[in-house]
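Structure first, sequence second, as always.
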């Protein structure tokens, strides 16, 4: 049986700790066979390595989540359902 996480409009940003009604969006589509999408994904990851853009999720990561939340500080994080037994 699968149970969903209780959804609340208000949540705390894991980066700046602001409790707010953060904006929501659907995860971006990602095709690992599309060279442009793969290149963009690598650019985002290279920004992490260099210490820039740490608040953004790479498109390949977003597929694991049901929604992506965005804080006023620019940080993005995914929200997924809790998987039950």
């Amino acid at each position: 049986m699968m149970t969903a996480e209780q959804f609340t409009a208000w949540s705390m940003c894991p980066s700046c700790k602001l409790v707010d009604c953060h904006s929501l969006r659907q995860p971006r589509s990602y095709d690992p066979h599309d060279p442009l999408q793969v290149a963009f994904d690598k650019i985002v990851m290279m920004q992490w390595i260099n210490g820039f853009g740490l608040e953004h999720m790479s498109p390949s990561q977003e597929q694991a989540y049901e929604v992506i939340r965005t804080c006023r500080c620019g940080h993005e994080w995914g929200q997924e359902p809790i998987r039950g037994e």
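Margin note: The chain is about 20% helix and 20% strand.
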